[in-house]
Amino acid sequence: MRLCFSFAMSYHHTKRLLLVRKGLLYSLALALIILLFGGVGFWAIDPRIETLSDGLWLAFTTAATVGYGDLIPHTPLSRLFSVAVVLLGLAVLSLVTASLSAIFVEQEVHEEEVAIKHNMAMEMHQLRQEVRALREQVARLVPPPQGQDPSNHQ
User: Is there a smaller number of Cβ atoms within 10 Å at the N or the C end of the chain?
Assistant: First the structure.
């Protein structure tokens, strides 16, 4: 039974950790897609953004809400586009942060679960020993009914 507990806990822990890591990968991929989308968008919309690398840099500084000021959106359309990039950037950066936090917290949660299940198994073992000892005491005090084998107790 202990081996079954250990295997089940290990399997579920591994499965959860893979899901959390997969979430982090998806979040990072989404962040890259938004940055690429933003870079191409700024490059296409704003006439003062002359290269794709400048568009990517503007998208990054906008999404991260850094705003160094070396590149800024100049047209009303590019400023409106920057609002969308900021909102998407904040959402995706929040997802990445949450995914990273979940990875760190997952290990602590797993360790706590293992400790709790170990303590429960130990307590169950002690209770079974106590019940066995009590049954032996009762068997010594009370003779079995007529016609029953004294060694056949449940």
Answer: C
Q: Give me the CATH topology for the region 28-116.
A: Helix Hairpins (1.10.287)
Distance of CA 33 to the CA centre of its chain: 22
Residue whose C-alpha is closest to residue 74's, from 39, 98, 49: 49
Write the pLDDT tens digit of every residue in 105-125: 877 777 888 889 999 999 999
CB 117 within 8 A of CB 5: yes
The pLDDT, as a whole number, for residue 112 is 86
Within 10 angstroms of residue 96's Cβ, the number of other Cβ atoms is: 16
| Coil, helix or strand at residue 148 | coil
Give the Å distances, CA to CA, from 16 to 11, 12, 13, 135, 154. Answer: 9, 6, 5, 43, 41
**75 close to 45: Cβ distance less than 8 angstroms:** yes
Give the span between the Cα atoms of 96 and 88, in whole angstroms. Answer: 12
Helix axis angle, 76-141 relative to 52-63, nearest 10°?
Answer: 50
What are the extents of the domains in the chain?
Answer: 28-116
| Environment class of 78 (CB within 10 Å of its CB; exposed 0-12, middle 13-18, buried 19+) | buried
